[in-house]
From TrEMBL:
Name of the protein described by the UniProt record: Pyrimidine 5-nucleotidase
InterPro entries: HAD-like_sf, HAD-SF_hydro_IA, HAD_sf, Pyr-5-nucltdase, SSM1_domain
Taxonomic source organism: Heliocybe sulcata
Sample GO molecular function, one term: nucleotidase activity
GO process terms (BP): nucleotide catabolic process; pyrimidine nucleobase metabolic process
Top-level taxon of the source organism: Eukaryota
Length: 248
């Protein structure tokens, strides 16, 4: 729970494939490790691919399915997958991104991170990107908690608000590269939501390579949610001008 009441709205940033570019290929490296984990459990490569996609599609996170349907230690999974990534070689600090965070007016809003990763991975990425001192709070998937929740499950967002002491979700700002995660937040009343999407780059979702295509959003539009899309986090200065310090 929040230590004290703070009525400032919160700007929630997703971490992976949002605070760094998908061109880093971290999602591909992660997909390979998750596939290898399935295979180490005795599944064939074909079965591993099918289950990986099934669990990602059904739960938003492959590990969520593994913990529900198999005797898997999520902390062991995290160590062999996220924890084994050579992140220091794959991502570097971005001075323009740090300046963006510095320009957010902390007298008006708080800045938190909201991720489906475990705490150690999230903190590691923020530290490498040199943003850890500019993020006031972190909501992560607590793999040590039985039956943990993750985006886009409603329980995850509800717990995030509780931990941050937020009473009015309409005052939340949220940016995530996964459209489903953004739509889920909108359905729960989060007032200012944006999808970060790098057109033309490839990511791995559910073990399958997917090209990011901002021009073909027909399936998502059928949900009835008109989600603003940005290709550069700097565009937040125009989308959410009220959260930034006045220009001098």
């Amino acid at each position: 729970m929040a230590e004290h009441r703070d009525d400032r709205p919160i700007v929630w940033f997703d971490i992976d494939n949002t605070l760094y570019s998908a061109s880093s290929k971290i999602s591909q490296a992660m997909g390979e490790r998750i596939h290898a984990y399935f295979v180490s459990m005795g599944f064939s490569h074909e079965e591993a691919s099918e289950l990986h996609l099934k669990y990602y599609t059904q739960y938003g996170l492959a590990l969520r399915g593994l913990t529900r349907h198999h005797d898997v230690d999520p902390l062991d999974f995290d160590k062999k997958c996220d924890g084994s990534l050579p992140l220091e070689e794959m991502i570097k600090p971005n001075p323009k991104l740090r300046k963006l965070f510095e320009d957010i007016d902390r007298s008006r809003v708080r800045v938190w991170a909201l991720t489906n990763a475990y705490k150690t991975h999230a903190e590691r990425v923020l530290r490498i990107l040199k943003l850890d001192d500019l993020v006031e709070g972190l909501i992560y998937c607590d793999y040590a908690e039985p039956n943990f929740s993750c985006k886009p499950e409603p329980e995850y967002y509800i717990k995030a608000l509780e931990k941050a002491g937020v009473t009015d979700p309409a005052r939340c700002y949220f940016v995530d590269d996964n459209r489903g995660n953004v739509v889920a937040a909108i359905r729960l009343g989060w007032g200012h939501c944006v999808q970060f999407s790098e057109h033309g780059l490839e990511v791995v979702e559910g073990g399958r390579v997917k090209q990011i295509d901002n021009e073909n959003l027909s399936d998502e539009k059928k949900s009835g949610s008109d989600v603003p899309v940005i290709a550069d986090l700097q565009q937040l200065r125009d989308v959410w001008p009220e959260i930034f310090k006045p220009e001098v």
